[in-house]
Amino acid sequence: xxxxxxxxxxxxxxxxxxxxxxxxxxxxxxxxxxxxxxxxxxxxxxxxxxxxxxxxxxxxxxxxxxxxxxxxxxxxxxxxxxxxxxxxxxxxxxxxxxxxxxxxxxxxxxxxxxxxxxxxxxxxxxxxxxxxxxxxxxxxxxxxxxxxxxxxxxxxxxxxxxxxx
Length: 165
What we know:
With 165 residues, the chain is mainly beta. Helices cover 12% and strands 39% of the residues.
């Protein structure tokens, strides 16, 4: 019998965490979707974004507000509000936020990545960017272990990104 149940959730009532300079709001967890996907809203500041990495999940980014520059494989894409970017599993990718703040819907297929902000974040006290001096739980080694468990592999910074950072 399928234990996945329908549900509805407003973003203002979803669990939210501050981690790595980002406000992460969990809209659908792997547990809620039977492992099929996870969906998070991210609020990010200018010039933030992950370093080049790859992971075992397909990923999609929908830009709600703001703009990013995405490098995925050999593609360099400017994605503005209303744009969707799809990144297949095992594709090396990174992005940089180009505007003061950017709000992104971040989908992972299958789910599981949401365990990173829930485990290594702190519950957000407001729906804003985290304070700059926020101390998050966990050590770098614990984060590397969790990244490995969710299939994420950080890579060296390629020359193409060095010039855009």
